[in-house]
Amino acid sequence: MLRPVPTPNGPMLPLKTRVGYSVAEYTLSLSLSALSLFYLLFLTEVGGLRPALAGLVLLLGRTIDAFFDPLMGRITDLTRMRAGRRRPWLLIGALPFAITFAGLFVDLPIESQVARFAYYASVYLAWTLCSTVLTVPYMALLPELTLDYQERTALSVYRSVFGQIGTAVAALATQPLVRGFGGGADGWLAVGLVFGAMLAWPWILTFLTTRERRDFQRPPEIPFYEGLRLTLRHRAYRNLMGLYVCSRIAMDIAGALLVFYFTYWLARPGDFELTMGLMLAMVVASLPFWLRASRGRDKRTLFVAGSIAWLAVMLCFVPATSEWPRWLPILLGGLAGAGYAAADVIPWSMLADVVDADELRTRERREGLYSGFFFFLRKLGGAVAVFVAGVALDLAGFVRGRGAAQPDSALQAIRVLTGFAPALFIGLSVLLARAYPISRDRHAKIRDELDARRADVEGTLF
């Protein structure tokens, strides 16, 4: 059970704010997980695209959208509305986000690969742009809700719980929905419509239960490109970007390939839902442990510990074969979830601390730009990784079509890409995390200096 955590340097957020803010993460994780886990499969088996073209759909959409992320961050920093800088965008983007998601799972009644590719690439780009309108201001809102080091971790844990619920719905309900509506194109269309109907309303709740800080509403004076330059020169931010991008690339590759791994390498397609269910249950079950462990410890330490555990388990997927006991790969999925939980939660709490350090340097609050650039590199890295994985499957001779027999070269590629490739990127994230410079003590000093500066400003005004 997640209990409120005392915060010596600031008040705890009320439960309605914690839950109201976090519920929007359900929609993000539901949609992102459904696409990460199944869209490559949909595009190859129903959409009729070659794996390389399917990967290119994701690459083009995420790459073009990635360049919009920093711009969206800047737009929210400059937004001046009665409801604040961030919250109005949650209402603006909610309905288009849901509608474009449903359009992703339409099966076109044409045979042309070019026409199919053009449709899926266009709709996917539209959906990613809509998601950016929501995610950048949503994540930029977190540093404003609380200034406390510990409370930010607690809020990130609440957000992760709702995120794991969304991921669980995507992982466990997608294929049963497909089968329940007759399989094939009709089943996948049902997935788009049912999930799409869930995506808009939580954003209204988040809008109603959160408030922005009035003292952070001053518009930035630093020009956009100068702001980008200063952002990229921020050492702590560079470390954080590196560890987060590597960690998410690992999850993107594993997420895209796991359904192939269980379907073709282990020849146990029904075990995919069991494995994902246990993994997500372990993520949620381990979050109270990580929250308790965070008391008195640096966030860097927690990230490294969780990532090492996650890395060790992913390597175990490499030697696994269909001759292993059925329960063992399922158990490995659960163990992976326990370590992954820390790697998923901690970076966003770190980002809020980096924004404080930036304010000390620049005298401006630039949460939007920092969140936008964070998403930019995360999307670009993940898109390239999944595209390369798709090309690797294509070169390995992967045969398109539902349940098609695969050559040994394709099976070996699936095995290596699922286990070894994610482990490599997790290892890189651990190395980068060790160099992250903002400790608990350092952040306390940053907060003290910022509080003193604000007190001086208020004294001057009054």
CATH-level-4 superfamily name:
MFS general substrate transporter like domains
What is the ordering of alpha helices and beta strands?
A: HHHHHHHHHHHHHHH
Apparent shape: globular
Based on secondary structure, the structural category is: mainly alpha
What does this structure look like?
Helices cover 78% and strands 0% of the residues. It is globular, with a radius of gyration of 22 Å. Helix 9 (235-265) packs antiparallel against helix 14 (408-433). It starts with 14 loop residues before the first helix and ends with a helix. With 462 residues, the chain is mainly alpha-helical. It has one domain: Growth Hormone, Chain: A.
Fold topology:
Elements: H1 15-45, H2 51-78, H3 87-103, H4 113-145, H5 149-180, H6 184-198, H7 201-209, H8 224-232, H9 235-265, H10 271-293, H11 299-316, H12 327-362, H13 367-395, H14 408-433, H15 440-461
Helix pairs in contact: 1-5, 1-6, 1-7, 1-9, 2-4, 2-13, 3-4, 3-6, 3-7, 4-12, 4-13, 5-6, 5-10, 5-12, 9-12, 9-13, 9-14, 10-12, 11-12, 11-14, 12-15, 13-14
